[in-house]
Write a structure and sequence with these properties.
By secondary structure, this protein is mostly helical. It has helices at residues 10-30, 36-43, 47-53, 57-68, 70-81, 85-102, 104-110, 118-140, 150-167, 174-185, 201-207. The radius of gyration is 20 Å and the shape is elongated.
């Protein structure tokens, strides 16, 4: 067997698994800018071993978040299957924000505070493609205000991300109250004309690309 095709040694594989578990834990608690030294400490390895397995911080994101974002696919599928389009829309939005609230690292990833892996970006794109359908169903049912657009969900994510960051340590569920007020304001019966246009898709893409 050549050197290139030889499988990793058992101890190296264990170190990688420990690093991934520690990174998921640390990023989940402290966000994506958490010190990598803390990840190495919790994994019980040296910082040199960490960099041998994951040369860049983004390499951790590539390994951790695609599987976690699979939940977004399940949330979208359930929303589209809901017999009541409004309930499906609400369930999707609540499920999306719940993902942000449950994991500070995922919260950072969803609002693009750091560059994302192609697989993570693809999961986000799939979710928002389905969101277009979810919004259309809710509008066609006459329950969601006509001027609400998919880009408005992005601005909601940004707002809720800040609520989550500021309150999670003292009132981890307070985001649900904030979101409930917002969702009630999206009902067609509560709508009044808004003169400000939503962001364009190009503006959203530019704003969600870290500099």
């Amino acid at each position: 067997m050549s050197r290139k095709t030889r499988p990793p040694r058992a101890d190296a594989a264990r170190n990688r698994d420990r690093l991934l578990a520690a990174a998921a834990e640390v990023f989940g608690e402290r966000g994506l800018d958490a010190p990598l030294e803390e990840v190495a400490r919790r994994a019980g390895v040296s910082i040199g071993t960490l960099y041998n397995h994951f040369p860049a911080r983004q390499d951790f994101f590539d390994a951790i978040f695609p599987a976690r974002l699979a939940a977004l696919d399940r949330i979208a599928e359930a929303a589209l299957a809901d017999a009541d389009p409004w309930d499906g829309f609400v369930a999707f939005v609540e499920g999306l924000i719940a993902l942000q609230a449950e994991d500070r690292g995922l919260n950072d990833a969803l609002v693009r505070r750091f560059p994302l892996a192609s697989e993570v970006s693809a999961a986000c794109h799939r979710g928002f493609a389905r969101l277009v359908q979810i919004i259309a169903r809710a509008k066609e049912s006459g329950q969601l205000r006509d001027d609400f657009e998919v880009q408005d969900v992005v601005t909601l994510m940004w707002a809720m991300s800040q609520v989550i960051r500021e309150s999670v340590d003292v009132a981890p569920d307070v985001w649900r109250r904030c979101l409930a007020f917002h969702l009630d304001g999206l009902r067609a019966a509560a709508a009044h004309p808004i003169t400000v246009r939503p962001l364009t898709a190009e503006q959203v893409a530019g704003l969600m690309t870290p500099g």
